[in-house]
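Entry for magnesium ion complex. Fields follow.
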Amino acid sequence: MENYLSVLNPEQRQAVLHWGKPLLILAGAGSGKTRVITTKIAYLVRERGVDPRSILAVTFTNKAAREMAERAQLIDSRAAEAMIRTFHSFGAWFLRRNGALIGLDSNFVIYDDDDTVTLLSSIMPNTTRAEAAKVAHHIARAKDYFLTPDDPELALIDHRPQFRNIYKLYEERLKAIGNVDFGDLIKKPVEILRAFPEVRQRFQDRFQVILVDEYQDSNVAQFELLKELYTSQTYLCVVGDDDQSIYRFRGAEVRNILEFPDRFSETDIIRLERNYRSTAPILAVAGAVVDNNQGRLGKTLQAERGNGKLPTLVFLPDQETEASFCAELIEKSLRSRGGTYSDWAILYRTNAQSLTFETELLRRHIPYKVVGSLKFYEREEIKDALALLSIMVNPRDEIAFKRVINKPARGLGQVTIDKIIEAASHAEPASRGNLLESCRNILPELSKKARNGLEGFLRILAQSRSMITTEGDVCKNSSVASDRLTAGDGLSALIVYILEASGIAEYHATEDEIAGTQRLSNLQELANAASLYPATEEGLAEFLEHIELDRSLESGEESNDSVTLITVHNTKGLEFRKVIITGLEQGIFPRDDKQDEDLEEERRLFYVGVTRAKDELYLTTCALRRMYGRASYNQPSLFLSEIPLDYIKILGQIPRGFKSGPKSASICDPSLHGAGQRDAEDGRLGPYARQLPRAPRTVSSDGLWRIGASLFHDDYGYGQVVRISEGPEGPLIEAQFETGKQVRFLSKYQSERFM
Ligand code: ATP
Ligand code: MG
């Protein structure tokens, strides 16, 4: 047997060799589902003589797609020609080639959520941005469920009668502008495939093999797309894990996986039951928590790697301490046990939590990267840069136009800008909506200052355009030398030129000086990323597409040795040697608005986070957290209390009332007293223990009192100690009496009066 097949276990091998009927691989985390897909691609090319161009493999993130391509190529270099993409990137590819059939220009720009909200705000005057964002969310859901503005089921998403009209108007505006949103990347290809049988035939002929990873998170529209591409001649194989379905809020339909055998007749099902990623104690924690969900398919998962280090649960006072705990843990581990920064990943529930970690890691000079976060591209300077590129590519992009036309100030007032937009919408059909042309027409009407400013802007865009050649040489005629930004290969010279010439670089450099931000280096990072793309029309379109689809500068950072900061959602499919899941507090993870099915989804998310870890797992929870400008005291996450105590090691002071999972001994077990002083072999709590002065004690320092002890008082009767703290004059005891009174007293004065 060929070596690459002999490394697989029998079920995995069976899945790779499987052919003919549709195949569903249903298996838990780390069981080799993705590995089966990559191996299968290579196997089909190598052993079955399948033309790699006829293979379509769909994954969840661009990073996963790249990895899949690399791994398949390691086995057989011909696999490079297979189409390995995300659903969205496949949709964009499809639309660039076939969009013209429905009147879509091939150089459309993909609107992100923010652009969508801006567009909606202009459709819905007198509404707040928050309201527009809500409608944007509903439109996105409608598209996920493949619902048009006329669909009767639309009311299930938003029952307000006006929603239908806004959705319709939004679609019309988007079409007029010539751009698409994320949902369109799936919805429009389906519409084209349905409306044009010859196109459908062409694609069905081309893709003989369709493979889908992370199938549990596909949505209705994506299912429709699969159906259009599928014929009885297609070999279809999907893999997934119902316990890892975490995108229901974005319209993912776990039913897609549960009902797969009904929808594709004669489906074969293969289960993989051995986990090769994590050690047994890590899997035990994952299993104990996800077990609390109802309605699971239920899968066995055997830890092939056997025993390992017990996961650690750490109670901390606040998020700053949490950040320094993480940083110190990483530093200590590197110092004492070796390894690399990239062994480590810090996971959090929401992006807003990343900032504290970023600040702490920066301060300590620990290299890190933020993966998959919206943050980078949400930064003002980056949005400005992208708007310049967008308006250059598509002169009808109103949102981009508004963003940069008078930034930095070119002497154009709002009235003039509105006039330009208005004139564009009434222009001759050939140039309707073309804002740059409308700018040119309005020039004679403007004051000298405004005219100069606008002429300069148009010149820069024209010059930028001329820098992209059909040959894709490095942009030769870049005439702006910059000492602020460095131009490299490919498109990066164009980016540096447009940023400098337009004044945006200077604008943000000033901001750096005033606010001490990192804006210029962010712009530089954008230019660096662009150097991987040729300076051609297509290269630019691809670059913009990559950004819209991926929203992280993963490429190029890959080889750097750095700690990964990442939301739990974004860790899907990934693995790290050492994982810290942070912010495990009620209200944070799970979020407080989550109940019933939503709570189960949060639990699956926790399961995903835990099962990313190969060797070590740390869970942190803080008593106090500041989020969105508010500070609040939170209880430890419900999920932590579902872990039996003997499955984990505890650091820090256990808050009163915290109960662990059912199979363990009770927290009141005397052997666990003083758990805060116990240390993990890799790094004592040290300073963190000292930062817990306000945490409740269970036994007074003079040894006379403990929480729960009964006592008697002449005046108040029988009572029970409920709190113990340490004051400057010794232990302070608080007791609840049968009369309902709660009384505080100093141990040293009062001890005789009680029994
Ligand atoms: P997830 O559900 O998290 O996406 P998965 O089922 O896709 O996980 P993979 O990522 O394919 O799992 O595999 C998990 C890890 O186990 C990888 O490091 C992979 O290389 C390794 N692995 C898979 N199968 C085997 C095997 N037969 N022998 C050794 N290692 C394996
Ligand atoms: Mg996988």
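NOTE: The pocket of magnesium ion (ligand 2) is lined by residues 33-34, 213, 573 (CB under 6 Å).
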